[in-house]
Amino acid sequence: MVIAEHYDLIVVGGGVNGTGIAADAASRGLKVLLCEQNDLGSATSSRSSKLIHGGLRYLEHHEFSLVRKALAEREVLLKNAPHIMHPLRFVLPHQSHLRPAWLIRLGLFLYDNLASRATLPGSRSVRFDANSPLKATISKGFTYSDVWVDDARLVILNAKAAEQHGATIINYCRCTHIDQHDNQWRVSLQPQHGQSFQVTSDALVNAAGPWVSSLFGDIDNYQAPQQIRLVKGSHIIVPKIHDGDEAYILQNPDGRIIFVSPFEQAYSLVGTTDVEYAGPPNDAAISQQEIDYLINSANHYFKHQITANDIVSTYSGVRPLMNDESVEAQKVTRDYTVVQNWQNSQLPLISAFGGKITTYRKLAEAVVDTLKPKFPAMTACRTQSMPLPGGDFTDRDTLLAALCQDYGFVPKPTLARYVRQFGTDTRQLLLNCMQLIDLGQDFGCGLYQKEVDYLVQQEWASCAEDILWRRTKLGLQLSEEQQQSLSNYLAMFELPITTAKSVVNL
Fold it and tell me: Reaction catalysed by this chain (predicted)?
């Protein structure tokens, strides 16, 4: 099927920055198309430390502007997406030979006061007793607040927000060539299933993440204005190291820090590393050296010791950071740069370099603002006060209680997961369900056919990996047989609904 359609804006890249840009632009009245070569959020954006945070350690590198911007965003995002985000208290054990207490107090004072805090409590000193999960030699430390986020769902919800404002979202569709034709951008797209087609636009945004520089190789007569530095960050997932809902931030002798965070009720997420990376971003994988580093760091602090045999899963993401000539990977700036290229005065090309998940909304706002000369009728940014889909509520417990009353036939743990994933959109998922049998086959751990169909039809999922590791995290729990059963069910669709759904919208 060959499709020709014109858009105000085409966004290349379906990570958190790309979907954030699409949502911002569409909400301002632009006609938007977003294409992603793999699944939405399948690269860097789903392989983070799952934190919306100011970046306490960035203060040591004097990135005060970035920290201030990120701290302010915590409150905005937490208010707009209470289903996929929640406050998280961090414990920072003190090791006097690594950083003096006065320096940590100063850093935490700045962290508390660089931006206003509406809901998150401030920092304080703490002492550990015999009940602490930390080793007995660690007697004192500090606590402070940040925010947990389901990063992959943040991407999906931004894509849904964009679609609700009229955008067309296509995943598993690679951009193969870009040129100028009749004073428009002409973009050639190749779906994973189906024939290639072309679309045109008045403006183009390159939000390809780790591929942001290499995409210029597909654009006629353009060269990348900046190069990025690829830094690999790896995590391990192990059975819970400690009881309680708090996370830990651990200092290491090399100056790095790692987080140990509660993950999916039964696990701990340990990461991240900072390793220079050269190679295809999709091929990034944890090394034995990284595994040893994370295990040794955790074992240095916690009474409960872990080994490689405890690892349930791992993931590695390649962060596309600005090449600021820092010698050490962990010192490379996490800030973003928006580069405008008006080589043709009538055809804007905007590229987003660098950035971190916490500031994705500000990056998106900055990118779309640069398009005002091209689209003077475009309205002002609305995303600061615009809840993400399903986020129009304030309290998870209250929402869960209401859902339990209305859908008492659904197991409460499943409804609780729905709240964390879909928020108020749970009611859309359960539309016309009157009894448990209406949810269809249970593929395991409360993953019912009704939810699978919803994820395929409404959230661009087309394979088991999309569902088990990004739309949900049930890949940690389902057996190989259960996962194969899900794959067999999805294979009954003649085409991935993601592609067919998007083509219909075209």
Answer: a quinone + sn-glycerol 3-phosphate = dihydroxyacetone phosphate + a quinol
Q: What share of the chain is helix, strand, coil (3-state, %, to 5)?
A: 35, 25, 40
**In 272-384, beta strands by DSSP E:** 275-276, 313-322, 336-344, 347-354
Residue 312 identity: V
| Integer Rg of the chain from CA | 23
- Domain co-membership, 246 together with 137: yes
Using the 3D structure, point to which of 325, 350, 365 is the last residue of a domain. 325
Tens digits of per-residue pLDDT, 317-333?
998 887 654 445 454 55
Does one domain contain both 297 and 438?
A: no
Query: Both tokens of residue 281?
Result: 């971003």
Helix (H) or strand (E) holding 85: strand 85-93
Distance CA 140, CA 386 (A): 41
Query: Which residue from 357, 287, 429, 488 is spatially nearest to 53, judged by alpha carbons?
Result: 357
* Angstrom distance (rounded) from CA 183 to CA 176: 20
Residue-level pLDDT at 323: 66
Beta strand pairing status for 6-12 and 85-93?
unpaired
Domain boundaries, position 38: 6-44+153-226+333-385
CATH label of the domain that carries residue 113: 3.30.9.10
Q: Which residues fall within 8 angstroms of residue 53, CB to CB, at 6 or more apart?
A: 70, 74, 146, 147, 358
Residue 1 located in a structural domain: no
Structural domain includes residue 80: no
Residue 337 binned pLDDT confidence (cut-offs 50, 70, 90)? confident
Residues 98 and 33 in one domain: no
Antiparallel, parallel or unpaired: β 32-35 and 168-170 = parallel
Cα–Cα distance for residue pair 379/138, rounded to 1 Å: 54
Q: Tell me the C-alpha distance between 198 and 200, whole Å.
A: 7
Is the pTM higher than 0.85? The answer reads yes
